[in-house]
Structure formats: structure tokens, C-alpha cells
Design goal:
The protein has 17 helices and 14 strands. By secondary structure, the protein is α/β, with parallel strands linked by helices. α12 links the parallel β10 and β11. The two termini are 44 Å apart. The protein binds adenosine-5'-diphosphate and magnesium ion.
């Protein structure tokens, strides 16, 4: 693929790309950037970690350099909306990075912090707002923000933004924009029913869909462990020890389970902290930063960390509980194997989660390798794909069913022993 020069972006953006060590555009960047530069509405779908942020940020910054219109007070030329404060902050940092050599006014509008400084920064008008829907709506309601002269709106993680929870705010935000506007939707998963909703917001749009089936990125080695609910903790500890995992995001179903698990792991000298929406924003920032710099080894998170968060070199994602919505699985495991790197996702599935597993497999279009043996040997399977093929795994066998015939029991035991021998 050619380098960024061919995309005819502003020279100062190209300088920033060199600074950021971006030498070639990714496929989604190559395909999306021209459409955004042309001010088309765009629906972009591409797998996790493939560079969707720069795909919209770079041409938006370029278009702003060409926009000579005056700043309107309390307004912005482009608004970018993301579902969580952390993701909005990350996108904001990206915008700052790529406009490093330009004079562009950027403002971050998220909840959990004082609104006054945000209002002040909006006073004279800005180029780009990056924010979360709740706080953006607060400012619109209070008269601190008006979108009547905004030309471009981006919804990152668009399918979630069009979900029931966010929809009322998104509708209102969209209504307060001028009729002539550019709408950009980006996501890694776009189920058909959500796409129909998305189409109502788009006008003559260009679609780039590199991941029609909502599949996890191929670089992620995925594995399911059929386990009893009561064995999850000991299994987790064993996996951490066996594979010498020193950094991982472990996803739980609820905030309480995240808290409890973090406590239990800390008791076992496993350096962990829970991360969820009930924590104060200052705590959330501190925990996430510690995790990013490696001071914290295990982030025990709810789905607040499932989408968009880009932390370099996370090798392991563990689903302590399977997610309630199948597409969240794709996003969770996509926190690893980013920007072409490798990753491993291990998911626990207890007897109450079997339907969730089925839904995930239906969505991604293939069966996940599942195991019941005590000791996994991921290292071996990572190193040698041919041995993975040879390895006998038990595909979705009802391991936890109470009643089982003796022959079935023997068969499973035999398989377990085989795997054990293999692993030893
Ligand atoms: P997505 O939104 O598709 O999940 P991101 O935009 O968060 O992906 O990008 C994933 C990672 O890839 C980030 O760390 C980003 O800096 C890096 N990246 C994106 N595009 C490029 C590129 N062209 N060259 C090098 N690294 C890139
Ligand atoms: Mg993203």
C-alpha cells in the first residue's frame, strides 16, 4: 500500500504522522479518508484495532484547515461523540496529536469533571469538540453549547450510540445540527437491525464495510473454558500463574463482581483493581493510567472498558463472565491484538452461560475452541500451530451437566488425560 502522501493531506498533518510513526495508511484509512475529505456521509465498519480513529480524524483536521468561516460563539465546526469518557479522551488525544503542528481549537466535553472550564473553553467557539452524549446535552440545555453552525458529526462506536441507552440524546443532538451536515459513523460491529436505524441518519452516504460479519481480528487466539461458576476464581489464578500473565483486562458481568474479583485477587497478591462506572472519575483515571504504564497488572472491568480503548501490547483478555450481548465479545477481545499485534482471549463459560456462548458463535460465524482440562498450554499452542490442530479438544460438550452416562464420563476423562499428557 502507498504511503500517506498520496492522500493529499495538509503538510502539517503529514509531519504529525511522521512524528506518530504512522508510515502507511491502514486499509480502512486508505478507503475512508477520501470520502471524508469529499465531505460525504460515511458508514465505516472495520475490525477492532485497525485504525478507525485516524481514518476520520485526519481528514476532519484537513477539512478544518480549509474552513475559513468564522468561529461562532459557544459552537464547534465538528463534533465527535463516543460512548465513554475514556474513549472520548483517547480520541481527543489523537486529535491533539495529529493537529500538533496546526493551530486548531480542540475541547474535550465529558462528564465526571467540573463543567465550568468546559463552558469557558467553548465561549469563543472551537474547531472540534470530542465528548460523551450526556455532558454534551447538558451544555446544549444550559445554553453553553449550540450546534447550529456545526458541519460535521462523528459517532464513534456508532452501533452503541444508536442503541436504546444513548438514542434519545443522539436524536436530540442530531436535531440541533443544521440540515446541511456531514455524518460519519464508525464501528467494528453493525448488526442489521442497527444498520437500518443508522441509515435514517445518513444522506447519500458512502459505505466501507471491511467486516460484514462482526468477526474478531484473526490475530487473536480464542479459547473457551467450560467451568463451574464456583471454580472460576481458582481457574483464573491457575491460568495467571501457568502462563505468567503480567498484564490483562479481565471482564466481569457486573460492577459488584468486578469489585469482588479484584479483592479476591489482591488477597492472593495478584495486583488488580476494579474499573467500572460506579468509581469516581478521578479514580477511573488513576486506575487506567496505572494499568497503561504497567504499575497495575490486572484491570478487572465491566463493559465500560470493552469498546475502543487502545492500550498497547495487551496480550491477554479474559472473559471471567461472558457478555450479555454477543457483539460485546468482539469488542472485549479486540482490546488485544491491536495494530497488527498478536493476542489471546480466554473465556470462561459456566452452565448458565451456554446460551450466551451459542449467541457469540452464531454472531462470529464459527465455533470457538472449548476445553475442560485443568491446565491449558497456551504457550505451546501459540508457538506451534500444528500441535494445536493435533490437540484433541472437546467442542462444547455439556461438561457441567449433572447426569452423565459412564461411557461419556470415561471419554471425557480420556480426553482430559490426553490433554494433560500433551501439556506436560
Ligand atoms: P480502531 O478504532 O479501529 O479499534 P484505533 O484507531 O484505536 O483502532 O487504532 C489502533 C492502534 O493502531 C492505535 O494504537 C493506533 O495508534 C495504531 N494505528 C492506527 N493507524 C496506524 C497506522 N497507519 N500506522 C501505525 N499505527 C497505526
Ligand atoms: Mg476505535
Amino acid at each position: 500500500m502507498h504511503n500517506f502522501d498520496k492522500l493529499c493531506l495538509n503538510k502539517q498533518i503529514n509531519r504529525a504522522l511522521v512524528f506518530a510513526n504512522f508510515s502507511k495508511p491502514t486499509i480502512i484509512q486508505h478507503k475512508i479518508i477520501p470520502h471524508v475529505l469529499n465531505r460525504n456521509d460515511v458508514l465505516g465498519v472495520a475490525q477492532t484495532g485497525t485504525g478507525k480513529t485516524a481514518a476520520y480524524i485526519l481528514p476532519i483536521i484537513h477539512n478544518i484547515t480549509l474552513d475559513t468561516s468564522r468561529y461562532q460563539k459557544k459552537s464547534c465546526k465538528t463534533i465527535i461523540i463516543a460512548p465513554t469518557r475514556e474513549l472520548a479522551t483517547q480520541v481527543f488525544e489523537n486529535a491533539k496529536l495529529f493537529s500538533k503542528y496546526l493551530s486548531i481549537r480542540l475541547t474535550l466535553i465529558v462528564g465526571g469533571v467540573k463543567p465550568k472550564p468546559q463552558l469557558k473553553s467553548l465561549e469563543k467557539g472551537v474547531d472540534i469538540i470530542v465528548g460523551t452524549p450526556g455532558r454534551i446535552m447538558d451544555h446544549i440545555r444550559s445554553g453553553g453549547l449550540t450546534l447550529s453552525s456545526t458541519k460535521t458529526i462523528v459517532l464513534d462506536e456508532a452501533d452503541q450510540m444508536l442503541d436504546l441507552g444513548f438514542m434519545p440524546d443522539i436524536k436530540k443532538i442530531h436535531k440541533s445540527l443544521p440540515k446541511q451536515r456531514q455524518t460519519i459513523f464508525m464501528t467494528a460491529t453493525m448488526l442489521d437491525q442497527v444498520k437500518n436505524i443508522a441509515l435514517n441518519f445518513l444522506n447519500n452516504h458512502k459505505e466501507v464495510n471491511l467486516s460484514p460479519k462482526a468477526t474478531p481480528i484473526e490475530k487473536i487466539k480464542q479459547k473457551v473454558i467450560l467451568v463451574k461458576q464456583s471454580d472460576k476464581l481458582s481457574k483464573l489464578k491457575a491460568i495467571i500463574e501457568e502462563h505468567k500473565i503480567f498484564q490483562s483486562i479481565i471482564f466481569t458481568r457486573t460492577k459488584k463482581r468486578a469489585d469482588n474479583l479484584a479483592k479476591a485477587l489482591c488477597k492472593n497478591d495478584i495486583n488488580s483493581a476494579s474499573f467500572h462506572g460506579d468509581k469516581r472519575q478521578s479514580q477511573r483515571n488513576r486506575i487506567l493510567n496505572s494499568f497503561k504504564v504497567g504499575k497495575l497488572n490486572f484491570l478487572i472491568a465491566t463493559d465500560i472498558a470493552a469498546r475502543g480503548i487502545d492500550i498497547k501490547d495487551i496480550m491477554f483478555i479474559i472473559n471471567y463472565d461472558l457478555p450479555m450481548q454477543p457483539e460485546i465479545y468482539v469488542h472485549r477481545v479486540g482490546r488485544s491484538a491491536r495494530a497488527g499485534k498478536e493476542g489471546t482471549a480466554i473465556s470462561f463459560c459456566d452452565s448458565t452461560e451456554k446460551n450466551r456462548l451459542k449467541d457469540i458463535e452464531k454472531l462470529i460465524g464459527y465455533k470457538l475452541k472449548s476445553e475442560v482440562e485443568k491446565s491449558l498450554d497456551l504457550k505451546k499452542s501459540n508457538d506451534d500451530n500444528s500441535t494445536v490442530k493435533k490437540k484433541r479438544t472437546i467442542k462444547n460438550k455439556p461438561f457441567f451437566k449433572k447426569k452423565r452416562s459412564n461411557s461419556k464420563k470415561k471419554k471425557i476423562k480420556k480426553n482430559l488425560n490426553k490433554n494433560k499428557t500433551f501439556n506436560d
